Amino acid sequence: MDYGKMTIDPAAGQLLGKARKDQVETVWDRFEAQQPQCGFGLLGLCCRHCNQGPCRIDPFGEGPKYGICGADADLIVARNLLRQVAAGAAAHVDHAYEAIETLKIATEENGPYTVKDPDKLKAVAAKLDLEVAGKNNLDLAKEIVDIAFGDFGNHTGAPMKWLLATAPQERVETWQKLGVLPRNPDREIREALHQTTMGMDADPVNLILATVKQGLVDAYAGLHLATDLQDILFGTPAPVATEANLGVLQEDYVNIIVHGHEPMLSEKIVEWSKKLEGEAQAAGAKGIQLAGICCTGNETLMRQGIPIATNFLAQELAIITGAVDAMVVDVQCIMPSLARVAACYHTKIFTTMPIVKMPGAEHIDFSLAEADKKAEEIVRKGVENFRRRDKSRVHIPDVKTKMLGGFSVEAIVGALAKLDGENPLKPLVDNIINGNILGAVGTVGCNNAKVVHDSFHVTMVKELIKHNVLVVTTGCSAQALAKAGLMVPEAADKYAGDTLRTVLTAVGNGAGLNAPLPPVLHMGSCVDNSRIGDLLSALASYLNVPIKALPVAASAPEHQHEKALSIGTWAVSLGVLTHLGVIPQVLGGRKVTEILTGDTAESLLGGKFYVETDPIKAAHGLIEHIQAKRHALGI
Ligand code: XCC
Ligand code: SF4
Questions:
Q1: CA dihedral defined by 203, 205, 207, 210, rounded to 10 degrees?
Q2: Which of 117, 153, 385, 503 pairs with 425 at a CA distance of 20 to 30 A?
């Protein structure tokens, strides 16, 4: 089958052929059936915020200029964007809240969770200005839980403590001047919904500032909080070798896939898969093979070395292998089609969260208090289901790549410390200053059916590293780049420019790898974009400049989720040029588009959005930006 218009991933390509043969509908078929997509929606010009609507604005200026209430194009676009970004923030904040609840359980004796990383516990406590000396871990964890919950119970006008503790001072001052410092995440999200109802804010500029505030809610009550607490609970990632792509599934093993975003259940699934190996063998399998999809996959990869099955757009194809005995999902990015696809095979989908149920799936009511019992039950059901597998319908593509993951900031600094123990960032910064490393780009975010699966991530990143730009990555972008073979030492030789390769080789050898570091560093899940933020803060503070002066950029080449917009808004708020490879639904508001992509955003925040739908042009746009920043720094 010629799959080139759908994906660049050969494993996905093979399974698209099988999907057709098995007559199973996939996301690509549904994308086709949706064409042409609504022009008003694509431009963001449709409003359904009250029951007088829906109202649509004619983008050509010939039909209606105002909705029934009088809202114009910019207002409708700005309101829609604020709702999208608030929804993205809500997803991350809800995830982080679950992490606080988990840490709370870990402060109780004999519970299902414990503090696995006391060093991180102390580091986070110190950041929060807690007295660390002489305290035991559980007491310290309790104080951290109180501060974290405190932000959600803050009924004063003071900004969120987690933000003050983790954001650079220069940024806090900038945000304060703009009046966008969030106080209490729940309150801010509620306010955004209120602000965008019928007959409320009519000023697009004010709505954009509220959008910036939601970006900060996302970053500091979502991403950063989740990463910090999950590291405390499950360990801070360290470099780990594993594999990526559907070829990691095995014919003679029970295959269990973890999919979604949170590690609280998946960490337990990892534990119980080991404990129940014997039962798998009794069922006729050689053992249990776990693999991950989306950010739950990234979490288990970073900390446990569990291989990646695939990323967002190919989640249905994993089932179409006919070899998946259980797919366990938690929250976010779980296609509602999964149970229909699974019904064509023996695969069981297990939903586990009260807010994520799916007709046709089996719901196992996961709770933190009963984490072990539930994880055991799920793994056991996966093992039982192995017996029902129809061997004649199995096709596992013989496609997988080796990869290195686990590059937390702590791990990167640790590797650099082998070169300069006193000043670990010095070797990195020296090589940025002398131009061996031109700059750095963080590629993040999703797949999107509007883009040939993985193609934008891979094409753009190859062009960047060829021009000596170091790439750090998270989310489904990281999974695309891993599958493309960009996270192995050999990728430095094969794809990196000469000077970047020299640095990667020196650091890799210095760190005892006896090989270059990969030119693309996997920094984790989408909430782990906080790690990229921390790396930028550390570099900026070492150079004594604000983040907005650094020769760096961000990119979400194939973004689909509202979360990607809220993360992008935060990146712009940090002062980072942020590329989007798929046009966001805002172009119908000319003023809004100009503010987000032009001088206004840049003068207020230091960053702005940059939309470019061609991967090579986008790479060069980012390189030009990096060169301009270098020039301004005089390097
Ligand atoms: Fe979802 Fe995080 Fe996007 Fe992938 S990258 S499609 S959000 S899994 Ni977050
Ligand atoms: Fe139409 Fe205004 Fe109602 Fe939106 S809020 S649907 S623009 S009347």
A1: -140
A2: 117
Distance 560 CA to ligand 2 centre (A): 25
Token reading at 490: 């050999």
Residues of the chain with pLDDT > 90: what percent?
Answer: 99
pLDDT band at 444 (very low <50, low <70, confident <90, very high): very high
For residue 419, give the 3-state DSSP assignment.
Answer: coil
Give pLDDT, residue 511: 87
CATH at 319: 3.40.50.2030
Residues 382 and 415 in one domain: no
Do both 465 and 383 map to the same domain? Answer: no
Distance 150 CA to ligand 1 centre (A): 28
Give the start-end residues of each E strand in 399-499. Answer: 401-405, 439-443, 469-474
- Domain membership of residue 576 (yes or no) is yes
| pLDDT tens, position by position, 30-58 | 999 999 999 999 999 999 999 999 999 99
Which listed ligand is nearest to 40 at the C-alpha? 2
Based on the fold, state whether residues 224 and 160 are members of the same structural domain: yes
Exposure on the CB side of residue 15, measured as CA atoms within 13 A: 32
Least confident of 64-73, 190-199, 508-517, 614-623: 508-517
Question: Domain check: are 225 and 253 in the same one?
Answer: no
Do 161 and 286 lie in a common domain? Answer: no
Q: Is the peptide bond before 54 cis (omega within 30 degrees of 0)?
A: yes
For Cα atoms 290, 292, 296, give the angle at the middle one, nearest 5 degrees. Answer: 125
Binding-site residues for [Ni-4Fe-4S] cluster, please?
261, 295, 333, 446, 476, 526
Domains: count for the chain: 3
Q: What is the CB neighbour count within 10 angstroms for residue 86?
A: 28
Report which bound ligand comes closest to the CA of 27.
1
* Per-residue model confidence as pLDDT tens digits over 556-596: 999 999 999 999 999 999 999 999 999 999 999 999 999 99
- Distance (Å) from CA 168 to ligand 2 centroid: 40
Mean pLDDT of 490-516: 95
**In this structure, are 610 and 535 located in the same domain?**
yes
Q: How does pLDDT run across 380-402, given as a tens digit for each residue?
A: 999 999 999 999 999 999 999 99
> Which range marks the domain in which residue 409 is found?
404-633
Q: How confident is the model at residue 1, as a pLDDT?
A: 80
pLDDT score recorded for residue 315: 98
> Which ligand gives the minimal distance to the CA of 330?
1
Residue 353 inside a domain? The answer is yes
Residue at which a domain ends, from 393, 424, 444: 393
Dihedral angle, C-alpha 348, 352, 358, 363, nearest 10 °: 60
49: in domain: no
CB of 294 shorter than 6 A to ligand 1: yes
Residue 63 within a domain: no
Ligand 1 atom closest to the CA of 525, numbered from 1:
2
202 and 89 in a common domain: yes
Instruction: Verify whether ligand 1 is closer than 6 Å to residue 55 (CB atom).
Output: no
Q: Ligand 2: does its nearest atom lie under 6 Å from the Cβ of 202?
A: no
Q: Which of 452, 494, 463, 471 is nearest to 616 (CA)?
A: 463
Which residue's CA is the nearest one to ligand 1's atom 6? 446
Give the pLDDT confidence score for residue 512 in this predicted structure. Answer: 87
